[in-house]
Each structure stands twice: as C-alpha cells, then as structure tokens.
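Is this the right way to post structure tokens for a design question? Let me know if I should format differently. Anyway, here goes:
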C-alpha cells in the first residue's frame, strides 16, 4: 500500500496559481506516521483525468484527488471518476439535500450538479460550506479550495485509516559545506545497509564553483535519532564537517489535529 495525490487544475500547470496541497498533505500524513509515495498534476482535460484515475483505481494505493468537483464547465473530476470506475453518474440524495439546505431554491439548476456523483460513492463532510466531497473505493475526492480540502483530508485519514497510524515521522538533516555527493557515497551505502528501516536522502547544491550537500534521515523518532547519530559520527570520522539544519517551518498546521 502507498499513498498518492492527484492534483487537478490547469491554473497550476500554467503557473497562474501555486500548489499548496502537496506540502500540506505531507504534513497531515507525517503527523500520523504516514508518508507520501507519489503525486501527479493534471490539467483540466477529461480524458487525461479519466486515464489517470483508471490507472490508480487499478492499484491498491490510497489516493487523494484535489480539484474539479464543482459545478462549472471545467470541473470534470466527478464524471471522470465515474467513467474510470465504469459507473454511472447519479444524483446522490444526501448530497442533494445538503445543497438544497444550503442554497434553497438557488441550488437549481446549476449548483445541484455537484450532487451528481459516481453510483455507490460515500460522502466526505465539508466543515466550511457543507458541500461534500466523495469517496470511491480507496480514492477520496476533495475540492480544490485548501481551506476546505485540508480538514476534509484529515477527516478521511481519521475515519478510514486510523488503524494504519504509526509514530510521527521525524526528519533530521545535516549540511556539509564544500562537500560533493560523490565524496559521501561510501558512507551513504554503509548507512543504508545498517539502517534499512530509515530513508536516507541526498540533496546536492551547486552555485558557481561552490558545492554543498545535505543528507537527510527520515523515520520514527527513536530510529531516526539512532541513525542520525551514527551518520554524524561516521562523517566526523572521515573528516567531513557537518552542521544540522533546523526543521522546516514552512508546513501549515493540520486543521484536523488542532481542533
């Protein structure tokens, strides 16, 4: 089992908007001891969305799909999900009731289309405006608006996957000024052999003639601490100066955990 994202929106691929979903999803997952395996960006093109969903539905992966479930002409995700699963698109009575409760007579004739969902899907509650997302098998379809999508993803994780939660993931990073990645291959190979339960990352940096490398260790807190200590000692033994990089402060808090 792996966890993936499908993020839909031509505005992201044209550069008109910057995506925030992936970074926040990583934070939501890591807070529960889970990690992201892959992420895909798609334009608002129905055939491409359908083909991507056919592929992911055929896998055992848990997939969160952001965007395209509204009622405007460029919102193709609901129909594409139904087509990919070989299902009809039908008016979901509970979703229709929520839309009519929120919008009254103004729910018709356009907004009510958001209640046309793949047959047999389950609803995902929306704490912001009550317009639901939906779950189809192991895929979870969320709106593109971050203030709605992020708490909805948190709800899905708690509702369906709590049994898979583990200890929160920790990452420790060392920066090695003036050191190239090629100089560190032997140490990295030794690390991988000694710590198979951890993930080691290598991020080289070049600026003119200057070289720098960052080595990251990810895993459960106890294992990461042990592996990080070994790595730091190994680097010092080989004469490579290293300094720890402070944890990133760019990720947003998880609305689902702060309540």
């Amino acid at each position: 089992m792996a966890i993936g994202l499908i993020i839909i929106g031509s505005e992201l691929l044209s550069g008109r908007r910057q995506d925030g979903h992936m970074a926040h999803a990583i934070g939501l997952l890591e807070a529960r001891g889970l990690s992201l395996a892959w992420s895909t960006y798609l334009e608002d093109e129905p055939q491409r969305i359908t083909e991507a969903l056919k592929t992911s539905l055929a896998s055992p992966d848990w997939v969160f799909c952001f965007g395209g479930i509204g009622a405007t002409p460029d919102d193709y995700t609901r129909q594409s999900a139904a087509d990919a699963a070989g299902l009809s698109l039908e008016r979901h009575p509970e979703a229709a009731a929520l839309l009519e409760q929120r919008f009254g007579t103004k729910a018709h004739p356009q907004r009510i289309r958001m209640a046309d969902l793949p047959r047999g899907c389950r609803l995902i509650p929306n704490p912001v405006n009550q317009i639901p997302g939906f779950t189809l098998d192991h895929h979870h379809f969320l709106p593109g608006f971050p203030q709605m999508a992020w708490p909805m993803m948190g709800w899905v994780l708690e509702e369906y996957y709590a049994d898979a939660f583990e200890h929160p993931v920790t990452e420790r990073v060392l920066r090695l000024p003036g050191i190239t990645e090629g100089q560190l291959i032997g140490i990295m190979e030794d690390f991988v052999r000694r710590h198979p339960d951890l993930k080691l990352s290598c991020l080289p940096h070049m600026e003119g003639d200057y070289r720098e490398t960052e080595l990251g260790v990810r895993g459960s807190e106890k294992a990461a601490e042990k592996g990080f200590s070994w790595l730091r000692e190994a680097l010092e033994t080989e004469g490579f100066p290293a300094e720890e990089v402070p944890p990133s402060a760019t990720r947003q808090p998880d609305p689902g955990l702060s309540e």
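Format looks fine. Someone answered above. Worth noting: Residues 249-259 have pLDDT under 50 and may be disordered. DSSP finds nine helices and twelve strands in the chain.
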